[in-house]
């Protein structure tokens, strides 16, 4: 399921209504934190200003959340890529930094250049769910499909808002032959 928060202990196997209506391309999505203050401020400082002081804290939080342990057994850990233009502007890929911080013992499985962003998309900020999906349609490609075929992949990103980015990346990875794609984000926007 998409990782939507429930007001009760539903368990790992529970699937929310929206996921029952329209299944995702990924198997499951989980987040370390909810995207609300002061988390939103820390994530924004990390994403746009390169402030990495919170990464150690984020890793400690992830390590305390036992239900996230199963995510680390993926064959490959793939950070969501930035377009080369945005990477030059920012100077770093926040999803790659996040993957390295959250999974220091699995550094060899982190594959930052396997998935690429093939075109510069407009910022997702302020776009509706439908506009986000259209904006990202066919925006990603797998560089080496033979490395993806039959693999269980953990996709890492900073924020899960509508799930459009994760879904399009998962679609691209599955078309290249990935056996399974799970998603871990630092924060999840709750639409409740």
Write the layout of secondary structure elements.
Layout: H1 17-21, E1 28-34, H2 39-49, H3 55-64, E2 76-79, H4 84-90, H5 94-102, E3 115-117, H6 129-136, E4 140-142, H7 145-148, E5 152-160, H8 164-175, E6 180-188
Parallel strand pairs: 1-6, 2-5, 5-6
Antiparallel strand pairs: 3-4
Strand content: 15-25%
- Element-level helix/strand string: HEHHEHHEHEHEHE
Averaged pLDDT: 85
Distance between the termini: 16 Å
Overall CATH architecture: 3-Layer(aba) Sandwich
Shape call: globular
Question: How many β-strand stretches?
Answer: 6
Radius of gyration: 16 Å
Question: What can you see in these coordinates?
Answer:
With 192 residues, the protein is α/β, with parallel strands linked by helices. It has one domain (21-188): Rossmann fold (3-Layer(aba) Sandwich). The protein is 34% helix and 18% strand. It contains 8 helices and 6 strands. It has helices at 17-21, 39-49, 55-64, 84-90, 94-102, 129-136, 145-148, 164-175; strands at residues 28-34, 76-79, 115-117, 140-142, 152-160, 180-188. The chain has a 4-stranded parallel beta sheet. Strands 3-4 form a two-stranded antiparallel ribbon. The mean pLDDT is 85.
């Amino acid at each position: 399921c998409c990782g939507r928060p429930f007001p009760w202990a539903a368990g790992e196997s529970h699937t929310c209504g929206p996921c029952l209506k329209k299944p995702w391309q990924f198997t499951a999505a989980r987040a370390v934190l909810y995207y609300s203050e002061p988390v939103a401020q820390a994530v924004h400082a990390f994403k746009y200003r390169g402030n990495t002081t919170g990464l150690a804290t984020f890793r400690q939080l992830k390590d305390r959340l036992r239900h996230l342990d199963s995510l680390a057994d993926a064959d490959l850990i793939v950070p969501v890529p930035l377009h080369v233009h945005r990477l030059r502007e920012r100077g770093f890929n926040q999803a790659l930094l996040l993957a390295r911080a959250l999974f220091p013992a699995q550094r060899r499985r982190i594959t930052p250049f396997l998935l690429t962003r093939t075109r510069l998309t407009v910022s997702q900020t302020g776009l509706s769910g439908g506009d986000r999906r259209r904006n990202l349609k066919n925006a990603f490609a797998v560089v080496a499909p033979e490395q993806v075929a039959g693999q269980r992949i953990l996709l890492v990103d900073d924020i899960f808002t509508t799930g459009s980015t994760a879904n399009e990346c998962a679609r691209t990875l599955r078309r290249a032959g990935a056996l399974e794609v799970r998603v871990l984000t630092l924060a999840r926007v709750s639409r409740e």
